[in-house]
């Protein structure tokens, strides 16, 4: 079948209520602004800004916030045919502090994890190039089983799988269960994105780069990308070895929420273009920098492909 879809993003769609005051705890935040949120949702929207064709597989509520979500997705040219509106669970929301570091958050999860097998038909998988999800999405059933089984089908059909291991014990309190589910997903040899904060939360301890890379390589992932904030990015690939890249200096960080999603969208985009790992990391970082300088998602009114410019043209 012809590959008409670049990217399937399976997982959480929700509303981020991001605090208006910068570097203030949720306890002291008075005002919140509403944004379309959810890590795979951000990736799907970012991807269309790069000219890719993306499909979001997700569930929201049959309510005003769900209507807002679908409208915003359509406005951003994301294919919404696989978004289900639940009549029994309301749309999930997360309250987030606005921060120049790792933001604090309080999740209220309802509809987001009600993803059913019927939302990921075989024909969809056959038409796509990359199947992407998140640790957040795998934290609860029925979404977990639906996504893991779909990833195995995707792998068998020749798709590249992908995962953002955005682990949080507040979302997934049972670390051992999380590790077992990740073992199952990583058996599909996904492209893996994780941060130092993710690793600290998953292992409940600081681990060396060698430990982190060995751990996830042993589970079956060939390519692992570790983001380290101001200390840059380190990538380990079983075939091509290690790659280090310094972080881009940013004088004015407006909001970190979604920066990892912007980075990973750039990464997947570059891989679809056939870029090598150095070029891929450069493109990913440049997209993350653009996000860090703006509140919410990537800014409107800018041609992202033009912004990436020379890196994409190489």
Q: What is the compact description of this entry?
A:
The protein has 12 helices and 13 strands.
Topology:
Blueprint (H helix, E strand, L loop, with lengths): L4 E6 L3 E9 L9 E6 L1 H11 L4 E8 L2 H12 L7 E4 L6 E6 L6 E4 L13 H5 L1 E7 H4 L4 H14 L3 E5 L10 H12 L4 E5 H8 L5 H10 L4 E5 L5 E5 L3 E5 L13 H14 L4 H16 L11 H5 L1 H4 L1
Tell me the fraction of residues in β-strands, as a range: 15-25%
Integer-rounded radius of gyration: 18 Å
Give the overall form: globular
Q: Please give the share of residues in helix.
A: 25-40%
Q: How does the major sheet shape up?
A: 9 strands, mixed
The total beta strand count reads 13
Report what the structure shows.
- It is globular, with a radius of gyration of 18 Å.
- The protein has helices spanning 39-49, 64-75, 122-126, 135-138, 143-156, 175-186, 196-203, 209-218, 259-272, 277-292, 304-308, 310-313, and strands spanning 5-10, 14-22, 32-37, 54-61, 83-86, 93-98, 105-108, 128-134, 160-164, 191-195, 223-227, 233-237, 241-245.
- The two termini are 30 Å apart.
- 37% of the residues lie in helices and 24% in strands.
- It is α/β, with parallel strands linked by helices.
- It has twelve helices and 13 strands.
- Helix 1 (39-49) packs across helix 9.
């Amino acid at each position: 079948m012809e590959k008409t879809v670049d990217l399937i993003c399976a997982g959480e769609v929700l509303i981020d209520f991001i605090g208006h005051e910068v570097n203030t705890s949720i306890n002291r935040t008075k005002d919140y602004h509403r944004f379309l949120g959810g890590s795979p949702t951000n990736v799907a929207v970012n991807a269309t800004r790069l000219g890719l064709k993306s499909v979001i597989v997700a569930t929201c509520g049959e309510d005003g916030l769900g209507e807002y979500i679908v409208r915003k997705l359509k406005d951003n040219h994301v294919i919404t045919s696989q978004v289900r509106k639940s009549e029994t669970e309301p749309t999930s929301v997360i309250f987030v502090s606005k921060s120049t570091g790792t933001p604090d958050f309080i999740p209220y999860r309802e509809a987001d994890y009600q993803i059913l097998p019927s939302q990921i038909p075989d024909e969809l998988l056959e038409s796509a190039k990359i199947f992407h999800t998140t640790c957040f999405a795998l934290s609860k059933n029925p979404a977990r089983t639906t996504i893991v089984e779909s990833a195995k089908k995707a792998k068998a059909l020749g798709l590249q799988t992908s995962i953002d291991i955005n682990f949080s014990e507040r979302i997934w309190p049972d670390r051992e269960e999380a590790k077992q589910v990740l073992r199952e997903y990583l058996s599909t040899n996904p492209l893996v994105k994780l941060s130092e904060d993710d690793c600290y939360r998953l292992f409940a301890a600081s681990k060396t780069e060698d430990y982190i890379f060995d751990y996830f390589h042993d589970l079956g992932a060939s390519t692992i990308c570790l983001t380290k904030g101001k200390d840059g990015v380190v990538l380990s690939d079983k075939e091509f070895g290690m790659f280090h890249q310094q972080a881009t200096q940013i004088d004015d960080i407006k909001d970190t929420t979604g920066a990892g999603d912007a980075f990973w969208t750039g990464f997947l985009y570059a891989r679809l273009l056939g870029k090598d790992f150095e070029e891929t990391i450069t493109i990913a970082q440049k997209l993350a920098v653009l996000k860090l300088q703006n509140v919410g998602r990537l800014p409107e009114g800018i041609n992202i492909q033009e912004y990436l410019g020379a890196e994409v043209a190489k």
